Amino acid sequence: MSNARVVLWGIIAIILLGLIWLFSSVNTIPRQDEAANAAWSQVLNQYQRRADLVPNLVSTVKGYAAHEEKVLTEVTNARARVGQLPAPDPSDPKSVEQYDRAQRELGGALSRLLVVAEQYPQLKANENFLTLQSQLEGTENRISVARRDYIQAVQTYNTTLRTYPGRFVAAIFYPSAQPRANFAAEAGAEKAPQVQF
Q1: What's the sign of the alpha-carbon dihedral 83, 85, 86, 92?
Q2: Which residues make Cβ contacts (< 8 Å) with residue 4, sequence separation at least 6?
Q3: Backbone angles phi, psi at 113, to 5 degrees
Q4: pLDDT at residue 101, rounded to an integer
């Protein structure tokens, strides 16, 4: 084989390797974007599960704790606020923050409801209440896991958009691709809560 042929085959091999790399890199951004979308949908799914449990929980507690109307009203109103919000756009930080704030309010109202329930031994022994409470606790855990998965998917996607070669690929093939908003800790979350007996 002549030197010219070896050089030609070397150039062809380099071009092929470059094209393979380019096509695999081009698909990375949409793949990671879809993974973040799927993770966000799972967060919304778990929030919906919690919202669906709330009316049953409130009805069960209402039968035992009729004079705790304020807490029951808070839970009902918080759930209504969550239900009235449109599904947030994960690429809009304000939309995500507003939705997350409403979800935190609902979580806080549910915590107060469970504290009220502790004051009623008959309610705590009610099988329906215990089942709902267990489902709610499981749902809160699922929300936490879904949020963690979303945070990881967003981290991967945002890192790809901000580092090379992803930054280069995004600029050429996906100029509208923007980093996604992520969950932020509530103000004061870094401080340990004070527990008094």
Answers
A1: negative
A2: none
A3: -65, -40
A4: 87
What DSSP string describes 158-169? HHHHHSTTHHHH
The number of residues in the chain equals: 197
DSSP result, the chain: --HHHHHHHHHHHHHHHHHHHHHHHHHHHHHHHHHHHHHHHHHHHHHHHHHHHHHHHHHHHHHH-TT-HHHHHHHHHHHHHHHHSPPP-TT-HHHHHHHHHHHHHHHHHHHHHHHHHHT-HHHHH-HHHHHHHHHHHHHHHHHHHHHHHHHHHHHHHHHHHHSTTHHHHHHHH-TT--PPP---PPTTTTSPPP---
Which token pair is 170? Answer: 């995004």
Question: Where do the domains of the chain lie, and which CATH numbers do they carry?
Answer: 3-173 (1.20.1440.20)
d(CA 70, CA 171): 54
Instruction: Give the pLDDT confidence of 111-120 residue by residue, as tens digits.
Output: 888 877 777 7
Residue 184 is encoded by which pair of tokens?
Answer: 């932020």
Judge whether 157 and 74 are in contact, CB under 8 Å: no
pTM: 0.71
* pLDDT value at residue 147: 92
